[in-house]
Amino acid sequence: MTLAKPRLTVIDTDPGIDDAIGILLALASPGFSIAGITTVAGNIGIETTMRNAGRLLAFANREDIPVFRGAAAPLSRVGPEPLNLHGEDGIGGVALPEPARLPESRHAVEWLADFLMEQPAGMVDVLALGPLTNLARLIVERPEAARRIGRIIAMGGAIHEHGNVGPRSEFNLWADPDAAAVAVASGLSLVLVPLDVTRRVRATREFVQTLAADGKPMAVMVGSLIESYFEAATNRESRPLHDPCVMLYAIAPELFRIEELRLSVDTGSGEMAGALTISPDGSPVQVALGVNGSEALDLLAQCLTAVSTNASIE
Ligand code: BDR
Ligand code: CA
After folding, report:
1. What's the 5 CA to ligand 2 centre distance in angstroms?
2. Of ligand 1's atoms, which has the minimum distance to the CA of residue 43?
3. Tens digit of pLDDT for each residue in 3-15?
4. Residues 6+ positions from 193 with CB-CB distance below 8 Å
5. Domain-embedded: residue 2
6. What is the predicted pLDDT for the residue at 231?
7. How far apart are CA 302 and CA 104, in angstroms?
8. Domain residues for 100?
9. pLDDT tens-place string over residues 250-275
């Protein structure tokens, strides 16, 4: 692991089963100092993503971390229907405690902008696990604050892989292509973690059993979350861990192969919405195109099983 000192981090997320795993991984890893969680509608509506973020923090006994309500809909189009894959509650029906702390009253974008202005420039990273609506609003409405972000690491897109909602479209970019286009063209330090990589970090049932057998609440909880992912997708031998790859990249970039690509985002409608194109006119983005999947999985297990928390399972 190369993150020697904890990085000040904001997680922008739409939990979501794999978001939940990513959040628990970040809480379990000493590499992150999480200043807040900003929520966005995506896998499911904003009320549910916000509630799920609070429930995860309650489970981990980390209600010192504030949760903010962000965008309830994409910048300029109708949002997606809830994804069946994540269940009616967005996290596969896994039992989590209700939060004691209420979400903050300030809007996520407003808080994030002010927080960035209070911190030294370059010191705050944003880990983006959902549609990029909050980030795009920050870039457009508070550009001076956005320029102070250290780096954005975002799960999204498909480069050489086929998409998961359209032939070349991945869910997070497809859900708000206009926001993705703003982020890609922003000139901010952006690392994109696309399906090309996340489909190679796959949890098997054996992996779930290893986590369950460990007995530590974080590991057991992540095992249950992956198990519910399996239930939603019958007859699969393994499931991709999309969003946790963002945290894994932040912790151990040496496990990933990065290339700079010039990208543009299709902002049309229909099945090509959110598709990425490599072209000389595109904006330069650091893109993760390769990963050592088995070492990434080992690292995930290591972080979850090493952690000693007060987390408890309901
Ligand atoms: C992305 O879409 C969502 O369903 C997941 O949470 C992940 O962020 C994968 O395409
Ligand atoms: Ca997500």
Report:
1. 26
2. 4
3. 468 999 999 999 9
4. 153, 154, 155, 156, 245, 246, 249, 256, 288
5. no
6. 82
7. 33
8. 7-306
9. 999 999 999 999 999 999 998 899 99
The tokens for 47 are: 């009320």
Determine the angle formed by the axes of helices 293-306 and 217-232, rounding to 10 degrees.
130
DSSP three-state, residue 277: strand
Domain at 116, CATH number: 3.90.245.10
Q: What global pTM score does this model have?
A: 0.95
Token pair listed for 298: 């080992």
- What spacing in Å lies between the alpha carbon of 171 and ligand 1's midpoint? 6
Is 146 a member of any domain? yes
d(CA 21, CA 260): 28
**How many domains in the chain?**
1
Instruction: State how far the Cα of 306 lies from the Cα of 303, in Å rounded to an integer.
Output: 5
Closest CA to 124 of 132, 137, 135: 135
Query: Of the bound ligands, which one is closest to the alpha carbon of residue 92?
Result: 1
CA distance 204 to 260: 31
pLDDT tier, 235 (very low <50, low <70, confident <90, very high otherwise): low
311 pLDDT band, cuts 50/70/90, is low
The reply to whether 312 falls in a domain is no
With contact defined as beta carbons under 8 Å apart, do 59 and 29 qualify? no
Structural domain contains residue 314: no
Distance CA 210, CA 213 (A): 5
Quick one: tokens of 79?
A: 């949002």
